[in-house]
Amino acid sequence: MTRRPPLTLVLPALLAVAFLAVPLLGVLADAPWSDLVGRLTEPAVTEALRLSLVVSVLALLFSLLFGVPLAWLLARVDFPGRTAVRCLVLLPMVLPPTVAGVALFQGLGRRGLLGGALESVGVVLPFSTAGAVVAATFVAMPFLVISLEGALAGLEPHYEEAAATMGAGPLRTLRLVTLPMLAPSLAAGAALCWARALGEFGATITFAGNLPGTTQTLPLKVYLLLQDDPTGATAVSLLLVAVAAAVLFALRGRWFRPAR
Amino acid sequence: MRPARRRALLALTAATAALLTTLTACGGSGADDANGGGGEEEVTLTVLAAASLTDVFTAAQELYAEEHPEVTLEFSFAGSQELVAQVEQGAPADALVTADTATMDGVAELTAAEPLVIARNALTIVTPPDNPAGVDSLDDLADPELRLVLAAPEVPAGRYGRQVLDAQGIDAAPDSEEANVRAVLGKVRLGEADAGLVYVTDATSAGDDVATVAIPEDQNVTAEYPAAALTDAAHPAEAAEFVEWLGSDEARALLGDAGFQAP
Q1: A217 — contact with chain B (CB < 8 Å)?
Q2: May I ask which residue range the UniProt record assigns to the signal sequence (chain B) (predicted)?
């Protein structure tokens, strides 16, 4: 019974699908399938993979630690400057990551705003794994905050109100009522945040530099492999595409659910 | 309703076609930009050039345009390996200039003629202007506390840097291996690195933003810059002419001003 969709919409939509699919098909077609395991278990690749996992998981933990409270505040408290804070959170999502890297230098680099203070307590971020974590957190945390804030705003308020009338304080309500109800959204936000941290390139190579074992994560490895060994670059790209696809498959439409 | 829909579809198709045409035109695929009969053809030459040539080639652009008004030069600067990778992937380009002969030899089958060495370069140590770590010789680069930045071993500047250090038996541990030599210079300029190894010409271009510590000639290396037109060039004649011009006295003077040595 469904009417045939108008060709005016179908044609450009098909072009869009082809446009998005062709480059990925290119990676699949060009991947060294017979030698894939060998290439992905090369020490240089496993080292970058290990570092990528460490950096992205730490970035996720920091994002949860600071991002969940921030999302709650943005959704539940009407404080002055809330819109400005929300824009600030969105900014790293739309900034070119290299610009994020430059900004991190000016803020947290040795000669940045807080660089002197950090160095006096022995923390030097550029060219260190900690710097790579900072860069990844800077670009990835907004994904968690924004998706969680959206979920909080869409939550029926009467469960929380009921908890409050039974004498639970805001923290207790958050822990026993709100967060359990938000678990699926929280998981979705965390997965996106982690995937973004795993794929982080521009801010990392700008702010943290590129040193195997210390700051050379998988995306940086792909970039340098492309200059030396394009087939190896394709193999590692395939790995990252597979990880990203797995995250999206696990989410299956949980991100930005249509408003109810 | 149907004619309206058909009109909309037509309009959309036309718009899509127009958009695609614009895209292909922007791609500079070498489609003839002939401006009618008679006068000379307008040509845009795409030249892939090593990152260390950024300043001098940008300056050369104007000079070349005065002598060849029909030719517009378009440069794409990157690490030599990256450029070679682009050429191998079939990026549309007319000429290639790299920062060492090894990278150029890697694409020997894609160059139209024997590459012409247009200039030589050497390495130097750069530090922030106040030289906070007090670096005054190559030996100082071995200090593990020093925040040293080198180019990645994949790019010529990185290979040369390791050659220089290895020859002196210096066991340097870099804090970062940048993807091209300009990024090394950037980190030193920002004051994030205490020292870096870059080409003499990079140090010249940074002026007072960095201090230099010269490397004695007998400990230094010589980088050769070969230039060649590419077999897939859209404008092979103009590309060959440009490469020839790079070997001229005029181009040599310009390169000399930028700190390059004559070939």
Answers
A1: no
A2: 1-27
